[in-house]
Amino acid sequence: MFLSRTDLLRPALTATSKLGCLFALVLLSRLPFLDAGYGLNIDAWRVARAAREIATTGEYTVSRFPGYPIQEITCALFWRGGPCALNALTAVFSAVAATAFAAIVRKLGCRDWFLAGLALAATPIFFVSSVCSKDYMWGLAFALLSFLGALNCWPAVAGAFLGLATGCRPTSAAMALPIALVIANATPHGWRSIAKFAAAASIVALLAFMPAFFRYGTGFLTFYANHPRPTGSLILIRSTFEVWGGFGLIALGIAAGGGWLTRKQPHSSNSRIVWSLLLILAIYITAYLGLPDQAGYLLPIVPAVLLLVCLFSPRPSLQVAFCCLLFAPIAEPTPRGIRPGAILSDHQDRLQNLANIRDFLELTESVPGNNTFVVGASEPEIAVLTPRLRDGRNRYVYLMNALEAKAAIDDGRHLYYLPAMRKFNYEETGVDLAEYGARDLRCVLANSNCPVTPGGAFQASE
Fold this sequence. Notes:
This protein folds into two domains: 12-344, no CATH class; 365-461, no CATH class. The termini are far apart. Mean pLDDT is 91; it is low at 451-462. Helix 7 runs parallel beside helix 9 (176-186) and helix 13 (241-262) packs antiparallel against helix 16 (315-325). The protein contains 21 helices and six strands. The protein is mainly alpha-helical. The strands form two sheets. It has a four-stranded parallel sheet with strand order 4-3-5-6. Strands 1-2 form a two-stranded antiparallel ribbon. 62% of the residues lie in helices and 5% in strands. The radius of gyration is 25 Å and the shape is globular. The longest helix has 26 residues, at 5-30.
């Protein structure tokens, strides 16, 4: 029996249509969560502010150093659409990431690649990161496309995608060595292909950061690291429950148990893939432990772990694990029963955050006179939500150094700070705001005169 051309193409068309369905499913699942501001992470609000400034001034500005130029400039094209527009861009990249991941799983020979794509999309840290304006998902999508290009023996394409990933999120450059290992395994001329990969990645990344270089010179090569180190228990919670959720951890346990019982080993052709995935885990876990500020820093290890599950877990336990993971973003098991999962809690917290900001501004705008409020991380949110206040009688600033505090006093301004800001301002700038007559905003709430205690007596006002 002879097969027609249509018969020969049907498997490929079927796979393509399934990938298209996966993309659509992931994207549709994000739509109910695109409102309620730009996200709980303050960096998402900084992206929104930078996008507005780039669009209105025509000059590139970083959301924070060292810059995330591809995302920032792209968002500048859509900033008038508000949170729904910028969050929708992230949602699109999340669908791209899930689809690319499914294609990688399929390339590695796993029959449950569609389910694997859904499982990645359902991982709590992935889901929460896919409905805000932060850059995590942008970098991950291009990094996974780079990994897929490496598997398909397209070193230049893989390099270009990694360069784009770096232009969206600089830490994506850490994927270079793991992807180079994949290229060395997938192509007959390993070193020549790696050279093509490295050249393409470097050229695209350098071009991506040209706007930052032209604006700031080499001074853009820095980053913020002024966060206090969290406790060991918080570091553990962020790296486990915040990343995977309760059902996700159960899923990993099922997959690990199945692999241990059956002693399944990956095909010999995938041996270097395993080393590449382990290298990804080592790089990003080490980086996270060095600065364990956000669970999102561990997002790149999520697809790596799920790929290891596909390679080492037998199909029955793999399917059960991935199905279990589908519940992780919407439900969280606790000793007292099931409570709302990460994506539901995140959305509720974002709504509450917006309400808190509005209440805070109602209070501060009722304070008579010309005032400066030291508000810390709330400053980008206020700047984005109420740009009209920038030219009003009140000023809202992140922190104040001595020159800024003196200038405000000379300008006849009253200084106020949020409760935690006096100590934080002192730690970061060496300036005790109380020495400049600044008052704790709780005094305003209590309708009290609250005498100022100069010096370093932070405990009284913390």
